[in-house]
Design a protein that fits this description.
Layout: E1 2-10, E2 26-35, E3 43-52, E4 60-71, E5 76-82, E6 94-99, E7 109-110, H1 115-126, H2 131-137, E8 179-180, E9 186-192, E10 195-204, E11 207-210, E12 219-221, E13 231-233, E14 245-247, E15 252-253, E16 259-260, E17 267-268, E18 274-275
Length: 283
Protein backbone atom coordinates (compact mmCIF):
# COMPACT_ATOMS: atom_id res chain seq x y z
CA UNK A 1 0.00 0.00 0.00
CA UNK A 2 1.45 3.33 -1.03
CA UNK A 3 0.90 6.52 0.96
CA UNK A 4 1.20 10.15 -0.07
CA UNK A 5 2.88 11.62 3.00
CA UNK A 6 3.21 15.30 2.21
CA UNK A 7 2.11 17.83 -0.33
CA UNK A 8 4.30 20.57 -1.72
CA UNK A 9 1.84 22.05 -4.17
CA UNK A 10 2.34 25.23 -6.16
CA UNK A 11 -1.03 26.16 -7.63
CA UNK A 12 -0.55 28.76 -10.31
CA UNK A 13 -4.24 29.34 -10.93
CA UNK A 14 -6.76 31.20 -8.81
CA UNK A 15 -10.53 31.22 -8.70
CA UNK A 16 -11.81 32.98 -11.82
CA UNK A 17 -8.36 33.36 -13.40
CA UNK A 18 -9.31 31.21 -16.38
CA UNK A 19 -11.37 34.06 -17.79
CA UNK A 20 -8.23 35.94 -18.79
CA UNK A 21 -6.25 34.85 -21.82
CA UNK A 22 -2.82 35.71 -20.39
CA UNK A 23 -3.03 33.41 -17.36
CA UNK A 24 -1.30 29.98 -17.63
CA UNK A 25 -3.70 27.05 -17.41
CA UNK A 26 -1.20 24.75 -15.69
CA UNK A 27 -1.08 23.38 -12.16
CA UNK A 28 2.34 22.28 -10.90
CA UNK A 29 2.03 19.58 -8.24
CA UNK A 30 4.84 18.12 -6.10
CA UNK A 31 4.39 15.34 -3.59
CA UNK A 32 6.23 12.67 -1.63
CA UNK A 33 5.38 8.99 -2.00
CA UNK A 34 6.05 6.57 0.87
CA UNK A 35 4.85 3.17 1.93
CA UNK A 36 2.68 2.61 5.00
CA UNK A 37 5.81 2.55 7.19
CA UNK A 38 6.91 5.97 5.98
CA UNK A 39 9.77 4.65 3.83
CA UNK A 40 10.18 6.70 0.62
CA UNK A 41 9.34 4.83 -2.56
CA UNK A 42 11.34 5.21 -5.74
CA UNK A 43 10.81 4.21 -9.37
CA UNK A 44 8.29 4.90 -12.12
CA UNK A 45 4.56 4.85 -11.37
CA UNK A 46 1.30 5.57 -13.13
CA UNK A 47 -0.50 8.40 -11.35
CA UNK A 48 -4.02 9.68 -11.89
CA UNK A 49 -5.01 13.14 -10.71
CA UNK A 50 -8.66 14.16 -10.36
CA UNK A 51 -10.33 17.47 -9.51
CA UNK A 52 -13.50 17.30 -7.42
CA UNK A 53 -16.05 19.86 -6.24
CA UNK A 54 -16.14 18.42 -2.71
CA UNK A 55 -13.73 17.07 -0.09
CA UNK A 56 -15.51 13.71 -0.22
CA UNK A 57 -17.94 12.34 -2.77
CA UNK A 58 -19.12 15.12 -5.05
CA UNK A 59 -18.70 15.46 -8.81
CA UNK A 60 -15.45 14.86 -10.65
CA UNK A 61 -14.55 17.96 -12.67
CA UNK A 62 -11.39 16.77 -14.43
CA UNK A 63 -9.06 13.76 -14.68
CA UNK A 64 -5.44 13.67 -15.85
CA UNK A 65 -3.54 10.37 -16.18
CA UNK A 66 0.29 10.38 -16.11
CA UNK A 67 1.43 6.86 -17.10
CA UNK A 68 5.12 7.29 -16.15
CA UNK A 69 5.92 9.54 -13.21
CA UNK A 70 9.53 9.42 -11.98
CA UNK A 71 9.89 9.26 -8.18
CA UNK A 72 13.41 9.99 -6.85
CA UNK A 73 15.29 8.28 -4.01
CA UNK A 74 13.58 10.51 -1.44
CA UNK A 75 10.13 9.68 -2.77
CA UNK A 76 9.65 13.10 -4.35
CA UNK A 77 7.95 13.63 -7.69
CA UNK A 78 6.62 16.56 -9.71
CA UNK A 79 3.91 16.71 -12.37
CA UNK A 80 2.24 19.46 -14.38
CA UNK A 81 -1.43 19.26 -15.29
CA UNK A 82 -2.94 21.23 -18.18
CA UNK A 83 -6.38 22.39 -17.10
CA UNK A 84 -9.16 22.66 -19.73
CA UNK A 85 -11.04 25.93 -20.16
CA UNK A 86 -14.20 24.28 -18.82
CA UNK A 87 -12.63 24.45 -15.34
CA UNK A 88 -13.19 28.02 -14.15
CA UNK A 89 -12.01 27.74 -10.52
CA UNK A 90 -14.82 30.06 -9.48
CA UNK A 91 -15.62 27.65 -6.64
CA UNK A 92 -13.51 25.57 -4.27
CA UNK A 93 -11.89 22.45 -5.71
CA UNK A 94 -10.12 19.41 -4.25
CA UNK A 95 -7.38 17.27 -5.80
CA UNK A 96 -7.43 13.49 -5.49
CA UNK A 97 -4.39 11.30 -6.30
CA UNK A 98 -4.28 7.62 -7.25
CA UNK A 99 -1.04 5.61 -7.74
CA UNK A 100 -1.25 2.67 -10.13
CA UNK A 101 -4.54 0.92 -9.27
CA UNK A 102 -4.41 1.31 -5.47
CA UNK A 103 -7.48 3.54 -5.35
CA UNK A 104 -7.63 7.25 -4.65
CA UNK A 105 -5.75 8.33 -1.53
CA UNK A 106 -7.48 10.16 1.28
CA UNK A 107 -7.91 12.87 2.22
CA UNK A 108 -8.17 14.94 -0.93
CA UNK A 109 -6.22 18.20 -1.04
CA UNK A 110 -8.00 21.53 -1.29
CA UNK A 111 -6.46 23.78 -3.93
CA UNK A 112 -5.24 27.17 -2.72
CA UNK A 113 -3.67 30.14 -4.46
CA UNK A 114 -0.23 31.66 -4.33
CA UNK A 115 -0.07 35.29 -3.07
CA UNK A 116 0.94 36.72 -6.45
CA UNK A 117 -2.11 35.23 -8.15
CA UNK A 118 -4.27 37.83 -6.39
CA UNK A 119 -2.46 40.55 -8.31
CA UNK A 120 -2.72 38.53 -11.53
CA UNK A 121 -6.51 38.47 -11.23
CA UNK A 122 -6.64 42.20 -10.61
CA UNK A 123 -4.46 42.88 -13.66
CA UNK A 124 -6.60 40.63 -15.84
CA UNK A 125 -9.80 42.39 -14.84
CA UNK A 126 -8.36 45.83 -15.59
CA UNK A 127 -7.35 44.73 -19.11
CA UNK A 128 -4.79 47.51 -19.43
CA UNK A 129 -6.99 50.23 -17.94
CA UNK A 130 -6.50 52.25 -14.79
CA UNK A 131 -9.21 52.36 -12.15
CA UNK A 132 -10.04 55.90 -13.28
CA UNK A 133 -10.49 54.62 -16.85
CA UNK A 134 -12.96 52.00 -15.64
CA UNK A 135 -15.04 54.62 -13.82
CA UNK A 136 -15.50 56.41 -17.15
CA UNK A 137 -16.14 53.30 -19.26
CA UNK A 138 -18.29 51.13 -17.01
CA UNK A 139 -21.36 51.62 -14.85
CA UNK A 140 -21.91 50.40 -11.31
CA UNK A 141 -25.25 48.81 -10.50
CA UNK A 142 -27.71 51.40 -9.21
CA UNK A 143 -25.52 54.35 -10.17
CA UNK A 144 -27.72 57.41 -10.81
CA UNK A 145 -27.40 59.31 -14.12
CA UNK A 146 -24.75 56.84 -15.22
CA UNK A 147 -25.80 56.28 -18.85
CA UNK A 148 -24.94 59.03 -21.29
CA UNK A 149 -25.90 59.43 -24.95
CA UNK A 150 -22.33 58.62 -25.97
CA UNK A 151 -22.71 55.14 -24.45
CA UNK A 152 -25.77 54.21 -26.53
CA UNK A 153 -25.61 53.28 -30.20
CA UNK A 154 -28.57 54.11 -32.41
CA UNK A 155 -31.16 51.35 -32.60
CA UNK A 156 -30.09 49.54 -29.43
CA UNK A 157 -32.90 50.71 -27.13
CA UNK A 158 -35.90 48.36 -27.30
CA UNK A 159 -39.31 48.41 -25.62
CA UNK A 160 -38.18 46.36 -22.61
CA UNK A 161 -35.46 48.93 -21.83
CA UNK A 162 -37.90 51.84 -21.40
CA UNK A 163 -39.92 52.47 -18.23
CA UNK A 164 -43.69 52.76 -18.58
CA UNK A 165 -43.42 56.21 -16.93
CA UNK A 166 -40.57 57.47 -19.11
CA UNK A 167 -41.10 61.01 -20.45
CA UNK A 168 -39.96 60.65 -24.06
CA UNK A 169 -40.68 62.94 -27.01
CA UNK A 170 -42.95 60.77 -29.23
CA UNK A 171 -41.37 62.20 -32.38
CA UNK A 172 -38.20 60.27 -31.44
CA UNK A 173 -39.94 56.88 -31.33
CA UNK A 174 -39.73 55.20 -34.72
CA UNK A 175 -43.03 54.10 -36.23
CA UNK A 176 -45.29 55.55 -33.51
CA UNK A 177 -44.76 59.32 -33.62
CA UNK A 178 -47.72 61.59 -34.43
CA UNK A 179 -47.34 65.29 -35.06
CA UNK A 180 -49.74 68.19 -35.29
CA UNK A 181 -51.51 70.75 -33.13
CA UNK A 182 -55.01 70.85 -31.68
CA UNK A 183 -57.40 72.96 -29.64
CA UNK A 184 -58.47 72.01 -26.12
CA UNK A 185 -61.96 70.49 -26.03
CA UNK A 186 -61.97 69.14 -29.59
CA UNK A 187 -61.75 65.45 -30.31
CA UNK A 188 -58.69 64.75 -32.42
CA UNK A 189 -58.77 63.30 -35.91
CA UNK A 190 -56.07 62.07 -38.25
CA UNK A 191 -55.45 64.56 -41.04
CA UNK A 192 -52.76 62.20 -42.36
CA UNK A 193 -51.41 58.81 -41.19
CA UNK A 194 -49.14 60.45 -38.60
CA UNK A 195 -50.67 63.95 -38.31
CA UNK A 196 -53.39 64.96 -35.85
CA UNK A 197 -55.74 67.95 -35.87
CA UNK A 198 -59.21 69.06 -34.71
CA UNK A 199 -62.42 67.26 -35.64
CA UNK A 200 -65.88 68.93 -35.68
CA UNK A 201 -66.80 67.25 -32.36
CA UNK A 202 -66.41 69.37 -29.24
CA UNK A 203 -66.89 68.32 -25.60
CA UNK A 204 -67.78 70.71 -22.80
CA UNK A 205 -68.25 68.99 -19.46
CA UNK A 206 -70.67 66.11 -20.06
CA UNK A 207 -72.18 67.71 -23.19
CA UNK A 208 -71.02 67.04 -26.73
CA UNK A 209 -71.49 69.40 -29.63
CA UNK A 210 -71.24 68.87 -33.36
CA UNK A 211 -70.62 72.12 -35.17
CA UNK A 212 -70.78 74.11 -31.92
CA UNK A 213 -68.37 74.86 -29.07
CA UNK A 214 -71.21 75.59 -26.63
CA UNK A 215 -73.33 72.42 -26.44
CA UNK A 216 -76.35 72.93 -24.17
CA UNK A 217 -77.45 69.28 -24.13
CA UNK A 218 -75.81 65.88 -23.98
CA UNK A 219 -75.78 66.02 -27.79
CA UNK A 220 -76.16 69.40 -29.44
CA UNK A 221 -76.05 69.46 -33.25
CA UNK A 222 -75.73 72.79 -35.02
CA UNK A 223 -77.02 72.22 -38.55
CA UNK A 224 -79.19 69.73 -40.35
CA UNK A 225 -79.63 66.17 -39.11
CA UNK A 226 -80.18 63.47 -41.72
CA UNK A 227 -81.45 59.98 -40.92
CA UNK A 228 -81.47 57.55 -43.84
CA UNK A 229 -83.17 54.65 -42.04
CA UNK A 230 -85.52 54.69 -39.04
CA UNK A 231 -85.19 56.77 -35.87
CA UNK A 232 -86.73 57.08 -32.42
CA UNK A 233 -86.44 59.85 -29.88
CA UNK A 234 -87.70 59.58 -26.32
CA UNK A 235 -88.04 56.92 -23.62
CA UNK A 236 -89.58 53.53 -24.42
CA UNK A 237 -90.33 54.38 -28.05
CA UNK A 238 -90.38 51.62 -30.66
CA UNK A 239 -89.90 51.95 -34.42
CA UNK A 240 -89.91 48.43 -35.85
CA UNK A 241 -91.33 49.45 -39.24
CA UNK A 242 -89.10 50.14 -42.21
CA UNK A 243 -88.09 53.81 -42.23
CA UNK A 244 -90.42 54.39 -39.26
CA UNK A 245 -90.02 57.42 -37.01
CA UNK A 246 -91.17 57.64 -33.38
CA UNK A 247 -90.87 60.64 -31.05
CA UNK A 248 -92.31 61.08 -27.57
CA UNK A 249 -92.91 58.70 -24.68
CA UNK A 250 -93.70 55.02 -25.22
CA UNK A 251 -94.88 55.64 -28.78
CA UNK A 252 -94.78 52.88 -31.42
CA UNK A 253 -94.26 53.20 -35.16
CA UNK A 254 -94.55 49.62 -36.46
CA UNK A 255 -95.81 50.26 -39.99
CA UNK A 256 -93.50 50.89 -42.90
CA UNK A 257 -92.86 54.62 -43.28
CA UNK A 258 -95.12 55.21 -40.22
CA UNK A 259 -94.61 58.33 -38.09
CA UNK A 260 -95.48 59.29 -34.52
CA UNK A 261 -94.36 62.85 -33.85
CA UNK A 262 -95.24 63.25 -30.18
CA UNK A 263 -97.51 62.42 -27.29
CA UNK A 264 -97.60 59.25 -25.25
CA UNK A 265 -98.52 55.64 -25.95
CA UNK A 266 -99.60 56.34 -29.53
CA UNK A 267 -99.40 53.63 -32.22
CA UNK A 268 -98.91 53.97 -35.98
CA UNK A 269 -99.21 50.38 -37.17
CA UNK A 270 -100.20 50.80 -40.81
CA UNK A 271 -97.89 51.68 -43.64
CA UNK A 272 -97.51 55.43 -44.13
CA UNK A 273 -99.66 56.06 -41.02
CA UNK A 274 -99.07 59.25 -39.02
CA UNK A 275 -100.00 60.17 -35.45
CA UNK A 276 -99.32 63.80 -34.65
CA UNK A 277 -99.46 63.45 -30.86
CA UNK A 278 -101.93 63.04 -28.02
CA UNK A 279 -102.51 60.00 -25.85
CA UNK A 280 -103.28 56.43 -26.91
CA UNK A 281 -104.10 57.30 -30.50
CA UNK A 282 -103.92 54.65 -33.23
CA UNK A 283 -103.44 54.90 -36.95
Amino acid sequence: MRLLMSLLCAVLLLVGLSAYAGAPRVISFQGKLTDTSGVPMTGTFEMTFRLWDAATGGTMLFQDVHPSVEVDNEGLYNVEMSIPTSITFQDLAWLGVEVDADGEMTPRYRLTSSPYSFWAINAGMLEGNSLADLDLRFVNEGQVNSITSAMIRDGEIVDADVSATADIDPTKIKGTACTGAGTAGYLAKYNAPTTLGNSVIYQSGSNVGIGTTGPAERLDVSGRLRVTDKARIGPNCSNSGSYAFAVGNANTASGSYATVTGGRMNVASRSYATVGGGYRNNA
